[in-house]
Amino acid sequence: MPGPLEGIRILDLSVALTGPLAAGMLVDQGATCVKVEQAPTGDLVRWIGTSVNGISAMFQVANRGKRSIVLDIRSEQGMAILLDLVADADVLVQNFRPGVAERLGVAYNDMAALKPDLIYVDLTGYGPTGPYSHRRVYDTAIQAQSGLADNQTGLYDNRPSQLRQLAADKITAYTASQAITAALFSRQMGRGGQHIQLSMLDACIAFLFVDGADHEVILDGDHSGPQAAASQVTPYALADGFISIAAPDDTGFHGLATAFGVDSSDPDLAHAPDRSRNREKFHRVLVEIRDKAATFTVSEAEELLEAHNVPFGTIRRVDEVVADPQVVTNRLFCEHDHPAAGRVRQHRPPAQFLGTPTQMTQPSAPTLGQHTDQVVAETGRGDAIAHLREAGIIA
User: Fold this and answer.
1) Amino acid 229: pLDDT
2) What is the dihedral of CA 275, 281, 285, 290, to 10 degrees?
3) Does residue 218 form part of some domain?
4) pTM of the entire structure?
5) What is the distance between the alpha carbons of residues 226 and 64, in angstroms, rounded to a whole number?
6) Is the same domain home to 129 and 275?
7) Predicted local distance difference test score (pLDDT) of residue 156
8) Residue range of the domain that includes 293
9) What is the structure's pLDDT at 84?
């Protein structure tokens, strides 16, 4: 059976990770997508990290199932092809810097004049206007400006730190994907097409402020504690590994203490409000728990924590995750032979739609321009392909 977005057609003019991943998640859910790339190298992400024949790990996961066309949209004939693709699309995704889409003639007003019910997704770093809007942007800049890097500080650690992944890109992609489906639903309800504007800065601040900016949300509260609910969550060092524990409720806290042989019977620590009022006592008990935990092995700690109903997760290396028993049970990963990159292992779409199951009918990301001839022919230009290629309009 097809996925829930079967029949939705996406035109992806974006590069790097945010836009391609947003479109890619919709492809995972049944949409089709034509990815427009520029000669000679295509999307830069093809060549970042582990890459074989222009297929990197990041490009593969964000672009699997799409069709790639190399098209010079700065030429008159290239723009004519693009406009035919727009006329057949439901969603257009672009992440040009402010002003570039207007100069190219592919801004919202241009596209909406041709296709009034188009969902047009306009992704920027800082927003369409403002003092930073003109800047070139990558993930690291947004982690810095949004507060995400500062949020990585904690007790006795005031040095900001970048998340060692492209978190800002992915946060924005997930936000964009949800916004696109909301706009498609609105269109289905008869409300027409829509221009979606989303900046990485806005998406990441919204992500952070849910739980990482207490003092900036509850302005009249007690600000003597930390800004972030998770500011004191750091892995516990065990005798032969590490484990992460979150035990904010009474059952978890007292179970944690009991598991590692620490007395938590002080009435000042009985309930969450008590522990909040008596932070110094609370901290001393946590330090004692950490000291005791270091004498236990991982397997001993897992058994004790599970027996006392304490939420925990054993720290896995990335290369261990695939073989984790729960991950295996969930059947999250699959392998296939990519025609250009060789053996590929990747996760299936994480959301499983039991009414409209999704299947990765094409699990490979496209090579650069792999579908140019096919897509151009679909616009009625099959006889002109040789001429267009010779003129450098397609590749």
Assistant:
1) 83
2) 100
3) no
4) 0.94
5) 41
6) no
7) 63
8) 236-314
9) 98
